Protein backbone atom coordinates (compact mmCIF):
# COMPACT_ATOMS: atom_id res chain seq x y z
CA UNK A 1 0.00 0.00 0.00
CA UNK A 2 1.34 3.44 -0.92
CA UNK A 3 0.00 5.21 2.16
CA UNK A 4 2.25 3.22 4.48
CA UNK A 5 5.88 4.03 5.26
CA UNK A 6 7.79 0.91 4.33
CA UNK A 7 11.15 -0.12 5.82
CA UNK A 8 11.98 3.27 7.38
CA UNK A 9 15.13 1.99 9.13
CA UNK A 10 16.13 -0.42 6.38
CA UNK A 11 15.63 -3.33 8.76
CA UNK A 12 15.99 -5.82 5.90
CA UNK A 13 19.76 -5.19 6.00
CA UNK A 14 19.90 -7.42 9.09
CA UNK A 15 19.21 -10.54 7.06
CA UNK A 16 22.52 -10.01 5.22
CA UNK A 17 24.65 -9.98 8.38
CA UNK A 18 26.92 -12.77 9.54
CA UNK A 19 25.88 -14.86 12.50
CA UNK A 20 27.41 -17.58 14.64
CA UNK A 21 26.44 -21.21 14.51
CA UNK A 22 24.95 -22.84 17.61
CA UNK A 23 26.71 -25.37 19.83
CA UNK A 24 23.42 -27.18 20.42
CA UNK A 25 19.72 -26.76 19.60
CA UNK A 26 18.02 -23.94 21.51
CA UNK A 27 14.40 -24.04 22.71
CA UNK A 28 11.87 -21.78 21.00
CA UNK A 29 9.06 -19.95 22.76
CA UNK A 30 5.79 -21.27 21.33
CA UNK A 31 2.58 -19.29 21.19
CA UNK A 32 -0.59 -20.70 19.67
CA UNK A 33 -0.99 -24.44 19.35
CA UNK A 34 1.15 -26.53 17.04
CA UNK A 35 -0.92 -29.43 15.66
CA UNK A 36 -0.07 -32.74 17.34
CA UNK A 37 0.50 -34.46 13.98
CA UNK A 38 3.14 -31.91 12.96
CA UNK A 39 6.29 -33.81 13.91
CA UNK A 40 9.45 -33.32 11.88
CA UNK A 41 12.12 -30.88 10.81
CA UNK A 42 12.08 -27.78 8.66
CA UNK A 43 15.53 -27.68 7.05
CA UNK A 44 16.75 -24.58 5.22
CA UNK A 45 20.04 -23.26 3.87
CA UNK A 46 21.39 -19.85 2.98
CA UNK A 47 24.40 -17.60 3.41
CA UNK A 48 25.47 -17.17 7.04
CA UNK A 49 28.95 -15.68 6.80
CA UNK A 50 29.20 -12.61 4.59
CA UNK A 51 32.94 -11.94 4.95
CA UNK A 52 36.15 -13.73 5.94
CA UNK A 53 38.09 -11.38 8.19
CA UNK A 54 38.21 -8.10 6.29
CA UNK A 55 37.50 -9.70 2.88
CA UNK A 56 33.82 -9.24 1.99
CA UNK A 57 31.68 -11.43 -0.22
CA UNK A 58 29.92 -9.29 -2.82
CA UNK A 59 26.89 -11.22 -4.04
CA UNK A 60 23.80 -12.69 -2.35
CA UNK A 61 24.93 -16.16 -3.48
CA UNK A 62 28.48 -15.94 -2.07
CA UNK A 63 28.11 -16.11 1.72
CA UNK A 64 29.18 -19.38 3.31
CA UNK A 65 26.50 -22.07 3.55
CA UNK A 66 24.65 -22.20 6.86
CA UNK A 67 22.12 -24.97 7.51
CA UNK A 68 19.14 -24.23 9.75
CA UNK A 69 16.74 -26.64 11.41
CA UNK A 70 13.50 -26.18 13.31
CA UNK A 71 12.49 -29.42 15.04
CA UNK A 72 8.83 -29.85 15.94
CA UNK A 73 7.68 -32.52 18.38
CA UNK A 74 4.74 -32.78 20.82
CA UNK A 75 3.98 -29.10 20.40
CA UNK A 76 7.56 -28.08 21.30
CA UNK A 77 10.08 -26.48 18.96
CA UNK A 78 13.87 -26.19 18.95
CA UNK A 79 16.14 -24.29 16.58
CA UNK A 80 19.65 -25.31 15.53
CA UNK A 81 22.15 -24.17 12.91
CA UNK A 82 25.62 -25.20 11.71
CA UNK A 83 27.92 -24.02 8.97
CA UNK A 84 28.38 -26.73 6.39
CA UNK A 85 32.03 -27.88 6.36
CA UNK A 86 32.56 -27.38 2.66
CA UNK A 87 36.09 -27.07 1.29
CA UNK A 88 35.33 -23.38 0.70
CA UNK A 89 34.47 -22.89 4.39
CA UNK A 90 37.11 -25.13 5.96
CA UNK A 91 39.92 -23.60 3.91
CA UNK A 92 38.69 -20.05 4.50
CA UNK A 93 38.69 -20.73 8.24
CA UNK A 94 42.17 -22.25 8.13
CA UNK A 95 43.77 -19.53 5.96
CA UNK A 96 41.63 -16.63 7.26
CA UNK A 97 40.93 -15.38 3.73
CA UNK A 98 38.63 -16.20 0.80
CA UNK A 99 40.31 -19.19 -0.83
CA UNK A 100 37.70 -20.37 -3.34
CA UNK A 101 36.07 -18.07 -5.88
CA UNK A 102 32.35 -17.74 -5.24
CA UNK A 103 29.53 -16.77 -7.61
CA UNK A 104 30.24 -13.02 -7.49
CA UNK A 105 33.48 -12.86 -5.48
CA UNK A 106 36.93 -13.64 -6.86
CA UNK A 107 39.47 -15.35 -4.62
CA UNK A 108 43.04 -14.15 -5.09
CA UNK A 109 46.22 -16.18 -4.65
CA UNK A 110 47.70 -16.33 -1.19
CA UNK A 111 49.85 -13.21 -0.75
CA UNK A 112 52.14 -15.16 1.58
CA UNK A 113 53.18 -17.61 -1.10
CA UNK A 114 56.34 -16.80 -3.04
CA UNK A 115 56.11 -15.43 -6.55
CA UNK A 116 56.68 -18.80 -8.22
CA UNK A 117 53.97 -20.71 -6.45
CA UNK A 118 51.64 -17.73 -6.89
CA UNK A 119 52.29 -17.79 -10.60
CA UNK A 120 51.56 -21.48 -10.61
CA UNK A 121 48.23 -21.18 -8.80
CA UNK A 122 47.31 -18.33 -11.11
CA UNK A 123 47.58 -20.47 -14.22
CA UNK A 124 46.20 -23.63 -12.69
CA UNK A 125 42.72 -22.25 -13.11
CA UNK A 126 40.13 -21.66 -10.52
CA UNK A 127 38.70 -24.30 -8.26
CA UNK A 128 34.95 -24.75 -8.59
CA UNK A 129 33.07 -23.87 -5.42
CA UNK A 130 31.25 -26.40 -3.25
CA UNK A 131 29.53 -23.68 -1.17
CA UNK A 132 26.15 -25.44 -0.96
CA UNK A 133 23.99 -22.53 0.23
CA UNK A 134 21.06 -22.89 -2.18
CA UNK A 135 18.97 -25.94 -1.29
CA UNK A 136 18.81 -29.30 0.48
CA UNK A 137 17.09 -32.42 -0.91
CA UNK A 138 17.06 -36.20 -0.50
CA UNK A 139 18.69 -38.75 -2.80
CA UNK A 140 17.86 -42.32 -1.78
CA UNK A 141 18.15 -42.44 2.00
CA UNK A 142 20.61 -39.53 2.10
CA UNK A 143 20.36 -35.75 2.23
CA UNK A 144 22.43 -33.34 0.16
CA UNK A 145 22.98 -29.61 0.42
CA UNK A 146 23.71 -28.05 -2.95
CA UNK A 147 24.60 -25.06 -5.04
CA UNK A 148 24.61 -25.27 -8.86
CA UNK A 149 28.06 -26.69 -9.56
CA UNK A 150 29.18 -30.32 -9.92
CA UNK A 151 29.64 -30.58 -6.14
CA UNK A 152 26.91 -31.57 -3.69
CA UNK A 153 27.50 -32.14 0.02
CA UNK A 154 26.05 -35.02 1.99
CA UNK A 155 24.79 -33.87 5.38
CA UNK A 156 23.18 -35.45 8.42
CA UNK A 157 19.70 -33.89 8.70
CA UNK A 158 19.53 -34.67 12.45
CA UNK A 159 22.93 -33.51 13.72
CA UNK A 160 23.58 -31.08 10.80
CA UNK A 161 27.04 -32.60 10.50
CA UNK A 162 28.81 -32.54 7.16
CA UNK A 163 29.46 -36.06 5.89
CA UNK A 164 31.20 -35.77 2.51
CA UNK A 165 31.60 -33.83 -0.71
CA UNK A 166 30.40 -35.64 -3.85
CA UNK A 167 31.63 -34.76 -7.35
CA UNK A 168 28.80 -35.52 -9.81
CA UNK A 169 31.33 -35.45 -12.68
CA UNK A 170 32.51 -38.85 -11.42
CA UNK A 171 29.15 -40.33 -12.40
CA UNK A 172 27.60 -38.13 -15.08
CA UNK A 173 28.58 -35.98 -18.04
CA UNK A 174 27.34 -32.66 -16.68
CA UNK A 175 29.21 -29.55 -15.59
CA UNK A 176 26.73 -28.98 -12.78
CA UNK A 177 23.07 -29.54 -11.97
CA UNK A 178 20.39 -27.19 -10.67
CA UNK A 179 19.40 -26.83 -7.02
CA UNK A 180 15.83 -27.75 -8.02
CA UNK A 181 15.57 -31.45 -8.84
CA UNK A 182 12.24 -33.23 -9.24
CA UNK A 183 11.43 -36.30 -7.18
CA UNK A 184 8.88 -38.99 -7.94
CA UNK A 185 6.92 -40.77 -5.18
CA UNK A 186 9.24 -43.82 -5.37
CA UNK A 187 12.30 -41.61 -4.77
CA UNK A 188 13.57 -41.32 -8.35
CA UNK A 189 15.33 -37.97 -8.74
CA UNK A 190 15.57 -36.00 -12.00
CA UNK A 191 17.67 -32.91 -12.58
CA UNK A 192 19.03 -30.83 -15.45
CA UNK A 193 22.49 -29.46 -16.08
CA UNK A 194 24.70 -27.89 -18.70
CA UNK A 195 27.04 -30.20 -20.51
CA UNK A 196 30.06 -28.64 -22.22
CA UNK A 197 30.92 -31.74 -24.18
CA UNK A 198 33.94 -32.85 -26.14
CA UNK A 199 34.80 -30.70 -29.20
CA UNK A 200 32.66 -27.89 -27.77
CA UNK A 201 29.35 -29.63 -28.34
CA UNK A 202 26.80 -28.08 -26.06
CA UNK A 203 23.66 -29.51 -24.56
CA UNK A 204 21.45 -29.53 -21.51
CA UNK A 205 21.25 -32.99 -19.99
CA UNK A 206 18.37 -34.40 -17.97
CA UNK A 207 19.86 -36.80 -15.44
CA UNK A 208 18.05 -39.58 -13.60
CA UNK A 209 19.08 -40.95 -10.20
CA UNK A 210 17.22 -44.16 -9.27
CA UNK A 211 15.32 -44.65 -5.97
CA UNK A 212 16.88 -46.32 -2.86
CA UNK A 213 18.57 -49.58 -3.86
CA UNK A 214 17.75 -53.00 -2.40
CA UNK A 215 21.44 -53.74 -1.91
CA UNK A 216 21.81 -50.43 0.00
CA UNK A 217 24.29 -49.12 -2.58
CA UNK A 218 24.43 -45.40 -3.33
CA UNK A 219 21.87 -44.60 -6.07
CA UNK A 220 24.14 -41.82 -7.37
CA UNK A 221 26.46 -44.55 -8.64
CA UNK A 222 23.63 -45.72 -10.91
CA UNK A 223 22.70 -42.27 -12.20
CA UNK A 224 22.58 -41.64 -15.94
CA UNK A 225 21.79 -39.06 -18.58
CA UNK A 226 18.23 -39.69 -19.77
CA UNK A 227 17.76 -37.16 -22.57
CA UNK A 228 19.51 -34.13 -24.08
CA UNK A 229 18.12 -30.75 -25.09
CA UNK A 230 20.06 -28.90 -27.81
CA UNK A 231 21.50 -25.42 -27.23
CA UNK A 232 20.17 -22.45 -29.19
CA UNK A 233 23.71 -21.07 -29.55
CA UNK A 234 26.93 -22.91 -30.25
CA UNK A 235 29.27 -21.52 -27.57
CA UNK A 236 26.70 -20.06 -25.25
CA UNK A 237 24.47 -22.23 -23.10
CA UNK A 238 21.65 -20.51 -21.24
CA UNK A 239 21.65 -20.28 -17.47
CA UNK A 240 19.22 -22.86 -16.10
CA UNK A 241 17.86 -22.73 -12.55
CA UNK A 242 14.94 -25.19 -12.66
CA UNK A 243 12.83 -27.23 -15.09
CA UNK A 244 9.33 -28.63 -15.33
CA UNK A 245 8.09 -32.21 -15.17
CA UNK A 246 4.61 -33.56 -15.96
CA UNK A 247 3.58 -37.21 -15.80
CA UNK A 248 5.05 -37.92 -19.24
CA UNK A 249 7.14 -34.90 -20.25
CA UNK A 250 10.04 -32.66 -19.29
CA UNK A 251 9.73 -28.92 -19.94
CA UNK A 252 12.90 -26.90 -20.40
CA UNK A 253 12.78 -23.12 -20.87
CA UNK A 254 15.88 -21.74 -22.62
CA UNK A 255 16.17 -18.06 -21.65
CA UNK A 256 18.33 -15.30 -23.19
CA UNK A 257 20.62 -15.20 -20.12
CA UNK A 258 23.72 -16.86 -21.55
CA UNK A 259 26.98 -18.21 -20.18
CA UNK A 260 29.80 -17.09 -22.48
CA UNK A 261 31.82 -20.30 -22.61
CA UNK A 262 34.81 -18.71 -24.30
CA UNK A 263 35.05 -16.21 -21.46
CA UNK A 264 34.49 -19.01 -19.03
CA UNK A 265 37.25 -21.18 -20.44
CA UNK A 266 39.85 -18.49 -21.15
CA UNK A 267 39.59 -15.58 -18.76
CA UNK A 268 38.36 -17.87 -16.00
CA UNK A 269 41.62 -19.78 -15.95
CA UNK A 270 43.94 -16.83 -16.45
CA UNK A 271 42.80 -13.67 -14.77
CA UNK A 272 40.72 -12.93 -11.73
CA UNK A 273 37.22 -13.76 -12.89
CA UNK A 274 34.15 -15.06 -11.12
CA UNK A 275 30.95 -16.74 -12.31
CA UNK A 276 29.00 -13.48 -12.60
CA UNK A 277 31.61 -12.15 -15.10
CA UNK A 278 30.77 -14.94 -17.55
CA UNK A 279 27.10 -14.08 -18.08
CA UNK A 280 25.75 -12.03 -20.96
CA UNK A 281 22.33 -11.46 -22.48
CA UNK A 282 21.23 -12.35 -25.98
CA UNK A 283 18.94 -9.49 -27.02
CA UNK A 284 17.73 -11.23 -30.19
CA UNK A 285 16.61 -14.76 -29.35
CA UNK A 286 13.69 -14.14 -26.99
CA UNK A 287 12.86 -17.28 -25.02
CA UNK A 288 12.61 -20.84 -26.33
CA UNK A 289 10.56 -23.67 -24.83
CA UNK A 290 11.63 -27.29 -25.29
CA UNK A 291 9.82 -30.56 -24.59
CA UNK A 292 11.03 -34.13 -24.19
CA UNK A 293 9.25 -37.34 -23.30
CA UNK A 294 10.18 -39.09 -20.07
CA UNK A 295 9.82 -42.75 -20.90
CA UNK A 296 11.73 -43.30 -23.07
CA UNK A 297 13.63 -40.00 -22.88
CA UNK A 298 13.28 -38.42 -26.33
CA UNK A 299 13.59 -34.82 -27.47
CA UNK A 300 10.51 -33.45 -29.28
CA UNK A 301 11.66 -31.26 -32.13
CA UNK A 302 9.00 -28.54 -31.95
CA UNK A 303 10.12 -24.93 -31.88
CA UNK A 304 8.18 -22.92 -29.30
CA UNK A 305 9.11 -19.24 -28.97
CA UNK A 306 8.09 -16.21 -26.95
CA UNK A 307 9.49 -12.85 -25.88
CA UNK A 308 12.53 -12.51 -23.60
CA UNK A 309 12.33 -13.24 -19.89
CA UNK A 310 14.51 -14.46 -17.03
CA UNK A 311 13.30 -17.60 -15.31
CA UNK A 312 14.39 -19.06 -12.02
CA UNK A 313 11.43 -20.97 -10.66
CA UNK A 314 8.88 -23.19 -12.32
CA UNK A 315 5.72 -23.29 -10.22
CA UNK A 316 4.18 -26.42 -11.73
CA UNK A 317 3.21 -27.87 -15.11
CA UNK A 318 0.79 -30.52 -16.25
CA UNK A 319 -0.82 -32.22 -19.25
CA UNK A 320 -4.41 -31.43 -20.15
CA UNK A 321 -6.35 -32.51 -23.27
CA UNK A 322 -3.34 -32.56 -25.58
CA UNK A 323 -1.64 -29.49 -24.11
CA UNK A 324 1.13 -28.84 -21.61
CA UNK A 325 0.29 -26.07 -19.16
CA UNK A 326 3.44 -24.39 -17.78
CA UNK A 327 3.22 -21.95 -14.85
CA UNK A 328 6.30 -19.81 -14.22
CA UNK A 329 7.65 -16.98 -12.07
CA UNK A 330 9.11 -14.84 -14.86
CA UNK A 331 11.08 -11.57 -14.91
CA UNK A 332 10.47 -9.64 -18.12
CA UNK A 333 13.38 -8.86 -20.46
CA UNK A 334 16.87 -10.24 -21.09
CA UNK A 335 18.79 -8.17 -18.50
CA UNK A 336 20.04 -10.67 -15.88
CA UNK A 337 18.15 -10.35 -12.58
CA UNK A 338 21.22 -11.53 -10.62
CA UNK A 339 22.91 -8.22 -11.59
CA UNK A 340 20.58 -6.66 -9.03
CA UNK A 341 21.36 -9.08 -6.22
CA UNK A 342 24.73 -7.73 -5.13
CA UNK A 343 24.79 -7.28 -1.37
CA UNK A 344 25.78 -3.62 -1.73
CA UNK A 345 22.50 -3.06 -3.62
CA UNK A 346 20.39 -5.02 -1.18
CA UNK A 347 21.87 -3.23 1.85
CA UNK A 348 21.10 0.26 0.52
CA UNK A 349 18.53 2.52 2.08
CA UNK A 350 14.94 1.97 1.02
CA UNK A 351 14.81 4.83 -1.50
CA UNK A 352 17.91 3.47 -3.28
CA UNK A 353 16.63 -0.10 -3.14
CA UNK A 354 13.42 1.07 -4.82
CA UNK A 355 15.30 3.02 -7.50
CA UNK A 356 17.44 0.00 -8.40
CA UNK A 357 14.36 -2.24 -8.61
CA UNK A 358 12.74 0.23 -11.03
CA UNK A 359 15.55 -0.43 -13.54
CA UNK A 360 15.51 -4.22 -13.08
CA UNK A 361 13.37 -6.71 -15.03
CA UNK A 362 9.80 -6.72 -13.78
CA UNK A 363 8.31 -9.84 -12.25
CA UNK A 364 5.19 -11.55 -13.59
CA UNK A 365 3.61 -14.92 -12.89
CA UNK A 366 2.67 -16.42 -16.23
CA UNK A 367 0.90 -19.44 -17.67
CA UNK A 368 2.09 -20.74 -21.04
CA UNK A 369 0.26 -23.45 -22.95
CA UNK A 370 2.13 -25.68 -25.42
CA UNK A 371 0.13 -27.76 -27.90
CA UNK A 372 1.44 -31.32 -28.33
CA UNK A 373 -0.35 -31.95 -31.61
CA UNK A 374 1.11 -29.53 -34.12
CA UNK A 375 -0.02 -29.31 -37.72
CA UNK A 376 2.05 -27.08 -40.01
CA UNK A 377 -1.01 -26.27 -42.13
CA UNK A 378 -2.72 -24.36 -39.34
CA UNK A 379 -0.78 -21.14 -39.87
CA UNK A 380 -1.91 -17.99 -38.08
CA UNK A 381 -4.43 -19.83 -35.98
CA UNK A 382 -4.44 -20.10 -32.19
CA UNK A 383 -3.85 -23.77 -31.44
CA UNK A 384 -4.88 -23.54 -27.78
CA UNK A 385 -8.43 -24.73 -27.17
CA UNK A 386 -8.37 -25.13 -23.38
CA UNK A 387 -11.49 -23.32 -22.16
CA UNK A 388 -10.01 -21.87 -18.95
CA UNK A 389 -6.98 -19.95 -20.22
CA UNK A 390 -6.28 -16.94 -22.42
CA UNK A 391 -2.78 -18.23 -23.25
CA UNK A 392 -2.23 -18.69 -26.99
CA UNK A 393 0.05 -20.63 -29.34
CA UNK A 394 0.12 -19.56 -32.97
CA UNK A 395 1.77 -21.48 -35.82
CA UNK A 396 4.08 -19.16 -37.80
CA UNK A 397 5.02 -19.44 -41.47
CA UNK A 398 8.55 -20.62 -40.55
CA UNK A 399 7.16 -23.61 -38.64
CA UNK A 400 7.80 -22.18 -35.19
CA UNK A 401 5.01 -21.77 -32.66
CA UNK A 402 4.71 -18.35 -31.05
CA UNK A 403 3.45 -18.42 -27.46
CA UNK A 404 1.67 -15.64 -25.58
CA UNK A 405 1.01 -16.15 -21.88
CA UNK A 406 -1.93 -15.70 -19.59
CA UNK A 407 -0.79 -13.39 -16.78
CA UNK A 408 -1.61 -14.96 -13.42
CA UNK A 409 -0.14 -12.24 -11.24
CA UNK A 410 1.46 -8.90 -12.00
CA UNK A 411 2.25 -6.01 -9.66
CA UNK A 412 4.89 -3.36 -10.36
CA UNK A 413 8.12 -4.37 -8.58
CA UNK A 414 6.05 -6.90 -6.63
CA UNK A 415 7.15 -10.48 -7.20
CA UNK A 416 5.43 -13.71 -6.31
CA UNK A 417 8.57 -15.82 -5.99
CA UNK A 418 10.04 -18.93 -4.32
CA UNK A 419 6.83 -20.79 -5.24
CA UNK A 420 5.65 -23.88 -3.40
CA UNK A 421 2.82 -26.29 -4.16
CA UNK A 422 1.50 -29.38 -2.39
CA UNK A 423 4.29 -31.18 -4.25
CA UNK A 424 3.71 -34.82 -3.33
CA UNK A 425 0.10 -34.68 -4.44
CA UNK A 426 0.16 -32.22 -7.32
CA UNK A 427 3.60 -32.10 -8.96
CA UNK A 428 3.02 -32.59 -12.68
CA UNK A 429 -0.77 -32.62 -12.20
CA UNK A 430 -3.62 -30.18 -12.64
CA UNK A 431 -3.66 -28.15 -9.42
CA UNK A 432 -5.29 -25.14 -7.79
CA UNK A 433 -3.03 -23.59 -5.17
CA UNK A 434 0.48 -22.18 -5.24
CA UNK A 435 2.12 -20.37 -2.38
CA UNK A 436 4.95 -17.89 -2.60
CA UNK A 437 7.07 -15.29 -1.00
CA UNK A 438 6.30 -11.66 -1.74
CA UNK A 439 9.31 -9.68 -2.88
CA UNK A 440 8.75 -5.94 -2.69
CA UNK A 441 11.50 -4.31 -4.81
CA UNK A 442 13.49 -7.53 -4.13
CA UNK A 443 12.93 -7.20 -0.36
CA UNK A 444 11.05 -10.19 1.09
CA UNK A 445 8.51 -8.42 3.31
CA UNK A 446 4.94 -9.44 2.61
CA UNK A 447 2.81 -9.50 5.76
CA UNK A 448 4.72 -6.60 7.18
CA UNK A 449 7.62 -8.51 8.70
CA UNK A 450 10.53 -9.86 6.75
CA UNK A 451 9.14 -13.09 5.50
CA UNK A 452 11.38 -15.82 4.18
CA UNK A 453 9.96 -18.76 2.31
CA UNK A 454 6.84 -20.78 2.63
CA UNK A 455 6.97 -24.54 2.75
CA UNK A 456 3.81 -26.58 2.42
CA UNK A 457 3.38 -29.67 4.55
CA UNK A 458 0.96 -32.45 3.57
CA UNK A 459 -2.21 -31.58 5.44
CA UNK A 460 -2.42 -27.90 4.91
CA UNK A 461 0.17 -26.00 6.91
CA UNK A 462 2.58 -23.35 5.67
CA UNK A 463 5.84 -22.76 7.50
CA UNK A 464 8.07 -19.76 7.15
CA UNK A 465 11.01 -18.22 8.95
CA UNK A 466 10.23 -14.60 9.79
CA UNK A 467 12.52 -11.96 11.28
CA UNK A 468 11.65 -8.76 13.12
CA UNK A 469 14.66 -6.49 12.72
CA UNK A 470 14.98 -3.84 15.39
CA UNK A 471 13.32 -6.03 18.01
CA UNK A 472 15.94 -7.03 20.56
CA UNK A 473 14.06 -9.83 22.32
CA UNK A 474 13.26 -12.89 20.20
CA UNK A 475 14.02 -11.26 16.84
CA UNK A 476 13.15 -14.30 14.70
CA UNK A 477 10.50 -16.96 14.64
CA UNK A 478 9.06 -19.92 12.82
CA UNK A 479 5.57 -19.00 11.63
CA UNK A 480 2.96 -21.70 11.05
CA UNK A 481 -0.03 -20.68 8.97
CA UNK A 482 -3.15 -22.46 7.83
CA UNK A 483 -2.69 -23.24 4.13
CA UNK A 484 -6.39 -22.75 3.50
CA UNK A 485 -6.81 -19.16 4.70
CA UNK A 486 -3.27 -18.10 5.74
CA UNK A 487 -4.37 -17.41 9.31
CA UNK A 488 -1.78 -17.90 12.02
CA UNK A 489 -1.85 -21.23 13.84
CA UNK A 490 1.29 -20.84 15.93
CA UNK A 491 4.70 -19.23 16.12
CA UNK A 492 7.94 -20.39 17.73
CA UNK A 493 10.23 -17.49 18.64
CA UNK A 494 13.99 -17.69 19.20
CA UNK A 495 16.45 -15.38 20.87
CA UNK A 496 18.81 -15.15 17.91
CA UNK A 497 18.67 -13.29 14.60
CA UNK A 498 18.35 -15.54 11.54
CA UNK A 499 19.96 -14.42 8.27
CA UNK A 500 18.28 -14.87 4.88
CA UNK A 501 17.67 -18.42 3.71
CA UNK A 502 17.17 -19.42 0.08
CA UNK A 503 15.47 -22.82 -0.09
CA UNK A 504 14.87 -25.92 1.98
CA UNK A 505 12.56 -28.81 2.72
CA UNK A 506 10.30 -30.31 5.35
CA UNK A 507 11.41 -33.72 6.59
CA UNK A 508 8.49 -35.48 8.33
FE1 LIG B 1 15.94 -21.36 -6.59
Write up what this structure looks like.
- By secondary structure, the chain is mainly beta.
- It has one domain.
- The chain has seven helices and 36 strands.
- Strands 2, 31, 32, 33, 34 and 35 form a six-stranded antiparallel beta sheet that branches. It has a six-stranded mixed beta sheet with strand order 16-17-20-21-26-25, with no helix packed on it.
- The two termini are 37 Å apart.
- About 1% of the residues have low confidence.
- It binds fe (ii) ion.
- Fe (ii) ion binds next to strand 22.
- One of its GO terms (molecular function) is beta-carotene 15,15'-dioxygenase activity.
Spell out the blueprint of helices and strands.
Blueprint: E1 26-27, E2 29-32, E3 40-49, E4 51-52, E5 55-56, E6 64-73, E7 76-83, H1 87-95, H2 115-124, E8 135-139, E9 142-146, E10 151-155, E11 162-167, E12 182-183, E13 189-196, E14 202-209, E15 224-230, E16 244-245, E17 249-254, E18 257-259, H3 261-265, H4 267-270, E19 279-281, E20 287-293, E21 298-306, E22 309-320, E23 323-332, H5 343-346, H6 350-359, E24 363-371, E25 392-395, E26 401-404, E27 406-409, E28 414-420, H7 423-426, E29 435-440, E30 443-444, E31 450-451, E32 455-457, E33 461-467, E34 476-482, E35 488-494, E36 503-507
Parallel strand pairs: 21-26
Antiparallel strand pairs: 1-7, 2-35, 3-6, 3-36, 4-5, 6-7, 8-9, 9-10, 10-11, 12-13, 13-14, 14-15, 16-17, 17-20, 18-19, 20-21, 22-23, 23-24, 24-27, 25-26, 28-29, 29-30, 31-33, 32-33, 33-34, 34-35
Amino acid sequence: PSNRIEHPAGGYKKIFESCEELAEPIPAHVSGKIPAWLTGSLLRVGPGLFEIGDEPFYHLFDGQALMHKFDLKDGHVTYYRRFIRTDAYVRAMAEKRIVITEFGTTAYPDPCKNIFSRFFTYFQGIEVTDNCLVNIYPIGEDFYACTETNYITKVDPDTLETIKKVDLCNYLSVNGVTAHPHTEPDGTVYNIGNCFGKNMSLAYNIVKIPPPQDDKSDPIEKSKVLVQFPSSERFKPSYVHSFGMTENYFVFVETPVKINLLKFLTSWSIRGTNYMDCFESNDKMGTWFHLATKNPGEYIDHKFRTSAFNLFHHINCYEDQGFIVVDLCTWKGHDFVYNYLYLANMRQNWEEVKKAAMRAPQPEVRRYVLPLDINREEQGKNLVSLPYTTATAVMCSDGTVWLEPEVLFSGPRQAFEFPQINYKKYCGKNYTFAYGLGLNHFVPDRVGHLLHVLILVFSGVLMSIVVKPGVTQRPAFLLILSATDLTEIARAEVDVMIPVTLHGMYKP
